[in-house]
Amino acid sequence: VRPEDEFSEWYNAAIEKGDLTDKRYPIxxxxxxxxxxxxxxxxxxxxxxxxxxxxxxxxxxxxxxIPESEFKKESEHIKGFxxxxxxxxxxxxxxxxxxxxxxxxxxxxxxxxxALWVRSHADLPLRTFQIVNTYRYDTKxxxxxxxxxxxxxxxxxxxxxxxxxxxxxxxxDIAVMRNLSRTFGIPFLLSKRPDWDKFPGAYYSLACDAxxxxxxxxxxxxxxxxxxxxxxxxxxxxxxxxxKYVPLLLTAMGYSVEERPAATSGLxxxxxxxxxxxxxxxEVLEREAAAGDVQRxxxxxxxxxxxxxxLCATAIPAEVAASLTKGGIEAWDPQHLGDLxxxxxxxxxxxxxxxxxxxxxxSERLLGAIVGLHGDAKGFTLPPLIAPIQVVIVPIxxxxxxxxxxxAATKLAEELSGLRVHLDLRDLRPGNKxxxxxxxxxxxxxxxxxxxxxxxxVTAVRRDMGAKATIPRANAAVALTSLxxxxxxxxxARAESVLAAGTTTITALTATVPGINAFAWCGRESCGHxxxxxxxxxxxxxxxxxxxxxxxxIVCGEAAAATAYAAKTY
Length: 570
Ligand SMILES: [Zn+2]
What we know:
Helix content: 25-40%
Bound molecules: zinc ion
Strand order of the largest sheet: 3-7-8-19-11-10-9
Number of strands: 30
Distance between the termini: 15 Å
Low-confidence stretches: none
């Protein structure tokens, strides 16, 4: 475990020498993306995009400004963010009627519009994401990538017909995060945040924490289940269909519902069921019934002697209902449906349901985690999958032999076109070039000098291990590709073993260690706070699937309800 001060100094130097950011912009916490830093971030964004597309999301871009009136609609949400938002109060010399905030996150920007986009079941699930800047006036000490006030932010927002479908989305998000974590070289601990630390307005929050070399954790992603909380505040709802409801009602009434009802008198009813020897046919209209429907129902009636026949519609005018009843056909309007539901203990039919929502958020903190996890005395190694330059070729020029070596290096670069290769032909000493590319995190360096040429080889140097290997020139493309794969895998594996080694199970409050402490917890907030105060740590959360550890709560000694994780955090 590295001391915080030493880490801080190292981190700041590493990102500066590595040319990831320029912190000289005159607003604290708002830094400049340099070309190299932004190229890395863009690669990461592209991996997020492709995972989102793979899982059925569409990319959108909402405006930066949110009217105060919209921002205020969800009370927990506004409470959670009011200390942190920037306000736009003037346009030119005029004070605005309604203040506008710079989005700290985009719920209040998106959900009033989702209310317009979502009309019926057919519009669900709605899966969107955007990668935009968000703004939070964080009052803690700023630190490039890890704690900034202008945030490069990924946010996915989804709407679902019900809680279960939203839960399935969360499982998908976790799987996406596992893929991305391998790509980014960031193993993480997934936990369900305690209630007092969930996202403002969420039903529950899951978070992914990386363990930094100081023993403190860094939150790199969050996934939230909102249930209907925001949908109620922003009126995001969809129209339910009777065709979906009637089979549920019939089941509650004791009928077994037919998968594919047979035609009766040449007419196929929407829904049919049997209860003992009794058959029921229900024609369902997602509209108001009209006089013209009566004749069709009469035909169905005559084709099903002895059984029940019903017409179900969003409304049934009195005169239509009277003709139906006269012909022995039941008229199921919403009120009658309500009566049937009460009698058979079925859930009532609701014309509209609120959507269930989820979000998934990440930011440039991921890059801060990469620097921290894969750092060393020379800076950091970028995982090959996100490195803008995977292989840098540095020719070792000998006097009088320069043209031949430059030529060989150029040919090699052309041959490696399947990789992201940079040929460094600057008039600098090789040692200076080595130093610069190592600082920038380029995962593999290839050297070609006179001796390599003679022997028909190139020299490959791994940035992470410093190990040199001689590769036959003829085999360079294949060998370098597998070397990059190996670096990618080993970076992750090393960080993963550090995470495992940094997670300790403790049985006494006095026994906390740097890193992640796992312990038995009764689940009570007061005991959680005792741990936080006593150990000067934060409760990260509990396993998201729940567990029932043996043993007693580390604070009160009562039966444990869950394993909890605690750590010092960034
Ligand atoms: Zn307790």
